[in-house]
């Protein structure tokens, strides 16, 4: 049986909202947090024409990109990037613990 202290020490997931403005037919959020699985986080277009997706992630460092109509796109709202193993760049998201 777990004690209350051990439960309290476990980091809590944080709610992160991603958005991408595009006239695209489809946008998928892909990254470390979903094992780069195109089926996990398809985004939905809102009435303003902005694609959005909310994900719950644990504190940590994550790399991600958008797959827009079959083409990789960086997040124009996030300047934090790193090189990936394919010679291109991924965005970096750092989620702090509360």
Summarize, please:
The chain is mainly beta and 98 residues long. It contains one helix and eight strands. Strands 2, 5, 6, 7 and 8 form a five-stranded antiparallel beta sheet that branches. A three-stranded antiparallel beta sheet has the order 1-4-3, with no helix packed on it.
The number of distinct structural domains comes to 1
Distance between termini?
Answer: 26 Å
Percent of residues in helices: under 10%
Report the CATH architecture. Sandwich
Give the ordered list of helices and strands.
HEEEEEEEE
Q: State the fourth-level CATH superfamily.
A: Immunoglobulins
**Residue share in β-strands:** over 45%
CATH class wording: Mainly Beta
How does this model look, in words?
The protein is built from 1 helix and 8 strands, in the order H-E-E-E-E-E-E-E-E. With 98 residues, it is mostly beta strands. It has one domain: Immunoglobulin-like (Sandwich). The strands form 2 sheets. Strands 2, 5, 6, 7 and 8 form a 5-stranded antiparallel β-sheet that branches. The mean pLDDT is 92.
């Amino acid at each position: 049986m777990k004690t209350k202290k051990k439960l309290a020490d476990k980091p809590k997931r944080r709610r992160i909202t991603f958005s991408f403005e595009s006239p695209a037919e489809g946008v998928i959020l892909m990254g470390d947090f979903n094992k780069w699985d195109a089926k996990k986080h398809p985004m939905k277009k809102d009435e303003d024409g902005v694609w959005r997706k909310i994900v719950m992630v644990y504190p940590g460092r994550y790399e991600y990109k958008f797959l827009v109509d079959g083409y990789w796109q960086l997040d124009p709202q996030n300047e934090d990037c790193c090189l990936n193993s394919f010679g291109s760049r991924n965005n970096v998201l750092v989620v702090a613990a509360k």
